[in-house]
Amino acid sequence: xxxxxxxxxxxxxxxxxxxxxxxxxxxxxxxxxxxxxxxxxxxxxxxxxxxxxxxxxxxxxxxxxxxxxxxxxxxxxxxxxxxxxxxxxxxxxxxxxxxxxxxxxxxxxxxxxxxxxxxxxxxxxxxxxxxxxxxxxxxxxxxxxxx
Amino acid sequence: xxxxxxxxxxxxxxxxxxxxxxxxxxxxxxxxxxxxxxxxxxxxxxxxxxxxxxxxxxxxxxxxxxxxxxxxxxxxxxxxxxxxxxxxxxxxxxxxxxxxxxxxxxxxxxxxxxxxxxxxxxxxxxxxxxxxxxxxxxxxxxxxxxx
Lengths: 147, 147
Hints:
homodimer, alpha+beta, 7 strands, 25% helix
């Protein structure tokens, strides 16, 4: 099993604000994909759609103390059964966001792509909270071929 | 052992141009850190310096067919002994860049940070080749605390 790891820190932002951006449909639509529907609270299923496809995530945990964990229940076969894990903590007026996308069976090329793409979406989350404006799909940062 | 994986594709660029940006001091200074010195050819040692510190890399392989591999011989203890590996290939007029930073002993928080930071530097490499202007340190993209 291999995993994608990332970290960003969000300036002048409390963990509760980042938590809201991870656990509400409006919040998620502001940085990951505008086409987000479903129920982003614990036990719910969130449907994220992008021009080329999408993912359904079951919310395994949404703890206001700063931990959110999703299981991919539909999407590309490499993603199904993997988990996306978020940990938040306050530090000197910033919120540190630790991210893991874990449970990949193999370090395939698609995983390389997703790792870089996650980084750009985490920067979008950071920008949303710091400036009020993220870069969710379909206005996301392109890292490769038209994607 | 755990690893950082990334992929970008560079538009309208031949692999030879990306190879030059990885195997010349001027090329490396254009996207990673302006303070790059040393010998970036096979067998050489490259010294990358950033405001908070830096890394020395021994060039284990520099193959014009599209493979470059470095070993970290000095720097933060988590980095020493790890390898940075680049594979390049042409695809439909683009160059696909597959990146691995492998051999981390543990998935520590610093590894999360470095993963996201590498993504921004790969975007800097892509921008340098596509637009003529990258974002090397000290003018790099900040992902967290002043870094």
